[in-house]
Amino acid sequence: xxxxxxxxxxxxxxxxxxxxxxxxxxxxxxxxxxxxxxxxxxxxxxxxxxxxxxxxxxxxxxxxxxxxxxxxxxxxxxxxxxxxxxxxxxxxxxxxxxxxxxxxxxxxxxxxxxxxxxxxxxxxxxxxxxxxxxxxxxxxxxxxxxxxxxxxxxxxxxxxxxxxxxxxxxxxxxxxxxxxxxxxxxxxxxxxxxxxxxxxxxxxxxxxxxxxxxxxxxxxxxxxxxxxxxxxxxxxxxxxxxxxxxxxxxxxxxxxxxxxxxxxxxxxxxxxxxxxxxxxxxxxxxxxxxxxxxxxxxxxxxxxxxxxxxxxxxxxxxxxxxxxxxxxxxxxxxxxxxxxx
Length: 341
Known about the structure:
The chain is α/β, with parallel strands linked by helices and 341 residues long.
């Protein structure tokens, strides 16, 4: 298939693009390469896909030494209502895997406009392009953040998501509502994936695993929010990517017949891990104890997440299963190699 992967220079997008290329698909990657975190990390991910940064850092070209002939990269804003439809018209995609978004819960308190621009306006533009260019299937990233103040665990897809506690979470719930509308009105098969705390090599520098590993190696204190009384369903990147690709490659003809064009799934490890146990796993992998600075809970944070993945198992015979210790070890090895520690 010919697949558009948005957010291809991002953490999850990079891994998904690579997996799809390895499976023999033709992939067009799209990203605006913003400065929410180090653009150099994004350029380095793209280099792994055979795209290199030129001297001006504005345009990217194939890297002759390791180029994927089936990969093309386009630098573009999702909000561009002229360039995006032109790209769809020129490339004639079969499937869209929409992973681009303004990420981060706490950053949404400081820069709310970017979440509306990228996550709402950008998503509308993607939906419109899918509508007008006969896209077979739209797979898009949602988030466990939509569960907000829900108390019952594990979180089920059937649970109410009416109480988001960050603009980021609200934008992701909005995406699900918008996708439902377009599936209903225009017969577009859409699948939303609620990711649960994804971690692993090439991860984002604003995520806890990255921040903790960096600080512990440097001998600096780590900030432990809610005095460590938090739990997360940590999900290793390979598990997320394998789930995404199963859905992207999955047969969807039956969804027209059953009138189930709109679907949402949890993708998580189906296991809630205490934050202090997660920190201990990092300490063991690094070989050094952390100096912990206990802090109050931050606005927008939830205390516990835990994914019920029964619907994913039922429909795709798939469930994530990487243990935290294994995933953390792989991340720390990558971190030390990438930063030459």
